Amino acid sequence: MPELNIAVIGGSRVSQEVCTLSYNVGRILAKYNVVVFCGGLTGVMECVSKGVSEGNGIVVGILPGYDPSEANDYVTIKVPTGMGYMRNFLIIRASQAVISIDGSAGTLSEASFAISEGKDVVSLFELNIPRKKEKEGHVYVEPDPEKAVQMAIELAKNWKWHEENE
Amino acid sequence: MPELNIAVIGGSRVSQEVCTLSYNVGRILAKYNVVVFCGGLTGVMECVSKGVSEGNGIVVGILPGYDPSEANDYVTIKVPTGMGYMRNFLIIRASQAVISIDGSAGTLSEASFAISEGKDVVSLFELNIPRKKEKEGHVYVEPDPEKAVQMAIELAKNWKWHEENE
Amino acid sequence: MPELNIAVIGGSRVSQEVCTLSYNVGRILAKYNVVVFCGGLTGVMECVSKGVSEGNGIVVGILPGYDPSEANDYVTIKVPTGMGYMRNFLIIRASQAVISIDGSAGTLSEASFAISEGKDVVSLFELNIPRKKEKEGHVYVEPDPEKAVQMAIELAKNWKWHEENE
Amino acid sequence: MPELNIAVIGGSRVSQEVCTLSYNVGRILAKYNVVVFCGGLTGVMECVSKGVSEGNGIVVGILPGYDPSEANDYVTIKVPTGMGYMRNFLIIRASQAVISIDGSAGTLSEASFAISEGKDVVSLFELNIPRKKEKEGHVYVEPDPEKAVQMAIELAKNWKWHEENE
User: Which domains does chain A have, with CATH numbers?
Assistant: First the structure.
């Protein structure tokens, strides 16, 4: 049974290049048998879901609306929340580490929430997030998908729940 | 790929009899290939998870705390939320129908939230919930686990998202 | 500065009789200088808000949608949440005791959530909620508005946060 | 009755200089009769609350825990949520515009969430948030407290709820 949850976050509209990168991240995550959490919609979410799905992995789509049918075709477990974009933060809560791919304000919001909750973020692109507290997580930039996934898995394994992160 | 989510709700401390009933509900749900959502902890949640797991199904545990290790041993997908008991309502949001087994105030809160969100509840025990609005769901009492699961699956298939349920 | 929060819950469509009762509860709560929390919309929510407002008290409307203008005309502080009916449970989290007036499944869901979170509920009408755990709150039935408010204030004063209620 | 909600966000540990700035922002907001939303704890939250309070305004503290007594001494309306840092996003949901003062990853997370939800942010310090979608809000940098407040009020007045921001 898979024992690690890793979130993949990124924009809902992406170039073909970023889609391919996301797909590859999904394939590699499936190979390592982790459960992938994402927002379940389009763009990075859809491309990574396709990769996980074609690698026979499990991808959980935490959806903003009430209707499971809003999920893309590759999501294994559809989780409607009815919370709108606030569902982003449930994706982070569910995961022990985060992989960030190109995105906009929403993606930055998730990545910086992860840091503030003491979780590490591996970003395939440049990403700057201020970090001021001992308990906060770190950002690592790693453009290679295979290395990024391996790093995220190691970080997820080392993550521990601390009362002060509550 | 499983296309229906069904929630199983019930008390965190249960008699052997109620545990066996919950286990059977889990086995039957696994047989019908639905994704089971529950609170991921003890009592009904653990007994139903064991049934799903031994039937080779998928059970998602929506957890109150921040730590995935608080889940019982049979949960397939562990989803920490950090929302405390408010996570109960995410279990309902994620599902298209609900099976209610014996419980206390928390279980009643989930079942009546389901009704108010327009979702049907199949209860293995007597359950009274006031229903005043057209858009609200119905409670069906069905003590037989096999029949209760079949009924919940039919109700879940007929569930449709309506704007006014928002 | 007011030091107690009390939730008033009830149906969104009410008879004139129940509206008058709700209005009176609001007037009395304002007299005792507590902050009143409600869902901010119609029915009991509007009638109680009018009572608080005309008694020069503060009423906070925790709204289901994104738009503050969905609040009724008597709400002092409008709090859009975008969480739909899940906002009900924020009303309970915000308060130290709850007054329940006639309602449907949604109201029962809030009242039983309060009990499960260790908060007491004073109901103006008959209300049955199973209670199985030491840490759970109690239901008190008191049809007289003045007495119901006084009782809720005493219960709110005695409420204490306990780790195990988390 | 105040008709606008404005959020003030910033770090929980601040220099004397930033505290004074936050206090001044609070005084000015009170003067203009808006309802101020913040996280209700220490640092910027406490300094701005003191300013609002001494200006006889209303400041709502949306708290991470379950206990209203965790609020700082200057909060008018204490709103425990039990959602941990996820309460940050309720502060944004409640407001029509945001004033950002110096902070760490948590503050960046709130500011970028605001942008992604179509709300404008006035920042007293440099703040870079990617913006890719038409519906997203804007960041304005304005170091002068009086001007920053006036700008935030104008932006809040112009904010309108659009379905696509859901």
Answer: 5-165 (3.40.50.450)
